[in-house]
Every structure is written in structure tokens, then in C-alpha cells.
Amino acid sequence: MATAGKVIKCRAAVAWKPNAPLVMEEIEVAPPQKHEIRIKVIATGVCHTDLYHLFEGKHEEGFPAVLGHEGAGIVESVGQGVTEIKPGDKVIPLFISQCGDCVFCKCPKTNLCEESWASVRYGVMSAEESRFTCRGQKILQFMGTSTFSEYTVLNQIAVAKIADDARLDRVCLLGCGIATGYGAAINTAAVTPGSVCAVFGLGAVGLAAVMGCRNAGASRIIAVDINEEKFAKARALGATEFVNPKKHSKPISEVLAEMTKGGVDFSLECVGSVAVMRSALESCARGWGVSVVVGWTDVADFSARPIQLIAGKTWKGSLFGGYKSKDSVPKLVLDYKAGKINLDEFVTHNMTLAKVNDAIELMKTGACIRTILSVCPE
After folding, report:
1. What is the top-level taxon of the source organism (predicted)?
2. Residue among 172, 244, 177, 252 at smallest CA distance from 210
3. Contacts of 263 (CB under 8 A, 6+ apart)
């Protein structure tokens, strides 16, 4: 392409500081270095983790940054040593890398990677090095991806090549939210046929967890949320029963225990609230119940009575649904194309990148499931 090897000036939504609106700016995106790939971003979702960094985590060292980590695009150019991906390929940027060589990548029990930004700067949610500048200042690449920019640069270990005919304004959701919730049910919880499940929180991640429980063959899927407007979408994705905790005077764990004669087999917390994490654990059946923490947060400690675990319950966490990213995301794209997983049902709003603050407001108020931002024409 004509821009290969050159600095690209493009539009991006910059988060200059915590707890403030994003600002549309012209930024400079450097050419890809050795083993790097520069991507023209076509579409991106707005995920709660973007809001978490902006409004909850608020690490000053994590700003200024370009947020966004749920995108899809087309390769503009590649750096030296990149052989498996070429300009023109459709790709999904990955916030979890897969180098294939580290102790984590070689272990089938985890999807972590030693080469990820999270290995060194987990708290600030970005690597120190960046290919972005604006007004003469370095701009951090949030979660290594920064899909709220028309162009971005990633190492090849954090890019998944996908099918040439993939619909980018849908499969971008597999870069985070849908894969996270779906995999938490399928991989981490390992939901079994005929089991009883409860999903706490019906945002995109929670609804994807509902879908995962359905596809795993659960006989009952109890959807728990204080926003009853989300129940219809949950039903369409497989939920069989619905509970609004605000309509009960007793703890939700007691409500679920009564509904299930002792507790659910599997519970998935998809809110990012330490209080809800405890409720989800307490809602599990003694002896074998499994509770999975899926919601992202790192600002508060959680707690539970030891007897919950002594009595045989399992409490575990799930990152990106347990999927090894480069291996799994292309397969998930094929599953979408084959109709095995839903994506269209999650999209409630479509906007341009310039409307990103409106999209953030929709998510803050719970008025959307997923907003897809159109970033560049395909």
C-alpha cells in the first residue's frame, strides 16, 4: 500500500485523563517495526473494560491513551519478519497475546502469555512502548490494541488472521466480550449437559455466558439482573428463568437456593462487582458447585466465608473465556459464520467513531448491549 513504511496521520479518540470525555484528535501512527503489523481498523465495539479504565481504575500512569480493544480491521502493512499475515488480510487485534513459546503458552491449562503487556504493566493496562504520538506526546495503546483509532500497530503475536469473508462489524465482538462470556461457560466452568446455571449480569459478557450455558446443554439457565429490560434478550439466547434481586427482601443466594433446592451447579459473575462475586459463590450447591469470576475489576478485595470452599465449592476466574487467542479467535469466527454462536443479537446501536462519547454514555446507563463504532470504510 502507498502508506507502507510511512507515518500515518489519522483520527483517534484520545483519553487525555481519567474521568473525562474522549477527544477526537489527529494522531501519528508510526510504521510497524520488526514482527509488527499495522492495521486499518474498520469496526470496534465499546466494552465495559474501556469504561473501567476511564472511570474506575483511573491509574494516572495509564493516560493519555487511546482506548478500545474489541476491534477488527484490515492489514495495511507489516514489519520485517512477519510471514503469516500479509497486507489486505482481515484480522482481529488481541488484548491477550499468544507467543507460542513461553511457559504459559506451552501449558494447556491457561491462556496467559509472558510476552503480553499485562505481564509487566497490569495496573495501567498498557505497555510502556507505543507507536502513537499526538501533539508531540506519546499516547499509550490501551491493552496493547487501541481500536478507537483509524490505524493501530500490534506485534504479530497479538493479531489473529480471520476468514476473508468475515463481517468485521460483527466479528469484532469476538475480540473481547462475546469470547469472554461464552468461553467462561464452555471452557472455564465447563458447564455440563442437564446442569442448572445462574448468570449474574446481562451485559454482553453475561448474555454470551447465557449462550455458552445453552450450547453446553444446561437444562435451566437463571438470568440475574436488576434491569428487567434485558430479560427478553437473555431469553432469546437461552435463559429459562429470570430474577431481579431488587424484587426480593432476602439475599439472592437464598432465592436461588429455594428455586433450585439447594443451589445451582454453575454460577458466572459477569458484573465486575466483588459483592456480586460473593453472591454468585454463595448461590452454588454445596459439594460440587462451581462459581466463575468473569467481570473485570482490580480496585477492591473480595471475601467469602471459608466454609463455602471447605464444603466443596470451587471458586475460579476466567480471562478471555480461557481461549488461547491466536488459535481460538479464527475458529470462533467460523462458528459465527456457521450459525453455532450468535453475534447479531448483541448489537443494539451503530455509530461512528466521532460519537464514541455517546456510546460510552449508553453503556454507563445500561441502555445498550453493544454499540458498534464504524471507524474506517472497508
Report:
1. Eukaryota
2. 177
3. 253, 256, 257, 283, 284, 285, 286, 289
Integer Rg of the chain from CA = 20
The answer to whether the peptide bond before residue 64 is cis (omega within 30 degrees of 0) is yes
Quick one: which of 347, 295, 325 has its CA closest to 45? 347
Residue 371: all three cell numbers together? 454499540
Q: What is the pLDDT of residue 99?
A: 95
For the purposes of burial, counting CB atoms within 10 Å of the CB of 377, is it exposed (0-12), middle (13-18) or buried (19 or more)? exposed
What confidence score (pLDDT) does residue 127 get? 84
26 DSSP β-pair partners: 11
Question: What are φ and ψ of residue 32, in 5° steps?
Answer: -65, 140
3-60 residue pLDDT tens? 988 999 999 999 999 999 999 999 999 999 999 999 999 999 999 889 888 888 767 8
What pLDDT shows up at residue 330?
A: 98
| Alpha carbons 334 and 161: distance in angstroms, whole number | 12
Helices (H), 82-201: 118-121, 168-171, 177-183
How is residue 358 written as a grid cell?
455517546
Q: Which helix (H) or strand (E) holds 274?
A: helix 274-282
pLDDT on residue 122:
65
Angstrom distance (rounded) from CA 48 to CA 67: 11
Per the listing, cell 462458528 goes with: 335
pLDDT, tens only, 135-150: 999 999 999 999 999 9
Q: Tell me the CA end-to-end span of the chain in Å, nearest whole number.
A: 15
Q: What is the largest CA-CA distance in the chain?
A: 66
Flag residues of the chain having pLDDT under 50: none
Name the nearest CA neighbour of 73 among 29, 114, 34. 29
